[in-house]
Design a protein that fits this description.
290 residues, Immunoglobulin-like, elongated
């Protein structure tokens, strides 16, 4: 970003990208024909670019454009700010994917706007915050602003917040593991992003989740699967999608042996015990795994 002409001893014109280890990303070379002042990255990998350029990737673009994740031009995005001496100096992505634009212009997206405006994005911003009894997962996608770090907190009154720790990157989002949270507690996830002129501004986006009482799993006794099938005693278990359920067995209702663990999907799962006939008696239970 800026007035770059070389990076990593390789020619680059006003915009370049480094790999995580600091080496030059040789496959990313969009080439802006004038200064780039601001960048904003979406969670789908697309990159908003703003500055004084009139060409990007060798194609006409006036002061604002969007790149695909591989550095090629996104042909479906062209707000084309206008004016006597147009320039876009600052960008910011809102949590809902809308794009704040600041600079020197009198029109934006074909409408009259004086130096500041907001653009609707071309795709929705998506996110979901879930808790399965031990892991908080915050999935973020689409045109949501990409964040560079996350924190997780809890509160019983939405006033005083207890820090749980920083999130770890996973595919499509962030997570925090080995967390025990009581019913009636609110979880807050915050992600920190950058933007503005020269990307010198910072802000956060957040999402909250009230941890409700989880419905217990149910052993189905009348769906046709309960009983001996193919030399196994078995049954189906239903639960809320996403719940992690352990099926356990006991001979005395005191000591329990875990036999199978499943994550509930859109339909019940089946459990079958091949060793049932070896036991003089055996009790079974299905419980939420914490």
């Amino acid at each position: 970003m800026g007035g770059v002409t070389t990076l990593g001893s390789e020619p680059r014109t006003n915009i370049a990208r480094l790999n995580a280890d600091g080496t030059l990303d040789s496959g990313f070379n969009p080439g802006a024909n004038s200064t780039v002042f601001s960048l904003a990255t979406q969670t789908d990998g697309k990159i908003l670019v703003a500055g004084l350029f009139t060409k990007l990737c060798g194609q006409p673009r006036s002061r604002i454009a969007r790149l695909n994740a591989d550095g090629t031009l996104d042909s479906g995005f062209n707000p084309d700010p206008g004016g006597d001496y147009p320039g876009v100096y600052a960008l910011a992505l809102q949590a809902d994917g809308k794009i704040l634009v600041g600079g020197s212009f009198s029109t934006l997206g074909g409408q009259a706007r004086s130096n500041i405006g907001r653009l609707n994005n071309t795709e929705p911003a998506t996110q979901s915050l879930t808790y399965d009894g031990s892991t908080i997962t915050w999935l973020r996608g689409g045109t949501s602003p990409e964040v560079w770090r996350t924190t997780f907190e809890t509160s019983t009154d939405n006033v005083t917040w207890l820090d749980l720790g920083s999130g770890r990157r996973i595919a499509d989002g962030w997570e925090l593991t080995n967390v025990s949270i009581t019913t009636g507690t609110t979880i807050r996830a915050r992600g920190f992003a950058t933007g503005g002129q020269d990307n010198g501004s910072a802000w956060f986006v957040e999402s909250t989740l009230l941890v409700a009482q989880q419905a217990p799993p149910v052993v189905l006794t009348s769906d046709g699967s309960f009983g001996i099938i193919s030399q196994r005693f078995g049954f189906s278990v239903s639960g809320v999608p996403g719940q992690v359920i352990a099926v356990e067995a006991s001979a005395d209702l005191f000591h329990w042996l875990p036999l199978q663990t499943n994550t509930v999907g859109s339909s019940p799962f089946y459990f079958g015990d091949p060793d049932w006939s070896l036991m003089p008696r055996r009790f079974y239970r299905a419980r939420l795994k914490q």
